[in-house]
Amino acid sequence: MSTREKTSEELLLQEEVSTQNEIVLHNDDVNTFDHVIETLIYACDHTAEQAEQCAMLVHYKGKCTVKTGLYDDLKPRCSMLLEAGLSAEIV
Prior knowledge:
The chain is of the alpha+beta class. It has a single domain (20-90), classed as CATH 3.30.1390.10. The chain contains 4 helices and 3 strands. The protein has helices spanning 3-18, 33-44, 48-61, 71-83; strands at 21-26, 63-69, 87-90. The model has no long low-confidence stretch (mean pLDDT 90).
């Protein structure tokens, strides 16, 4: 493989990685675990187990990435989390 091909492949890989965004959910003292879990199942298509694990991470670590993907897919999901009273952002 030539140097030019390898450089081109690395550049394509970097571009693909950089198009991924994340929804980060932040801890608060207002919402119950059940509400957070139900909202993650609804808004992010989590399984009950995924949602429970994310809720625990948010509680103990202060934040957790709950969904990764393209911005256009994440924006409505983040809006659903915000409308449900959760604290979330796309990074």
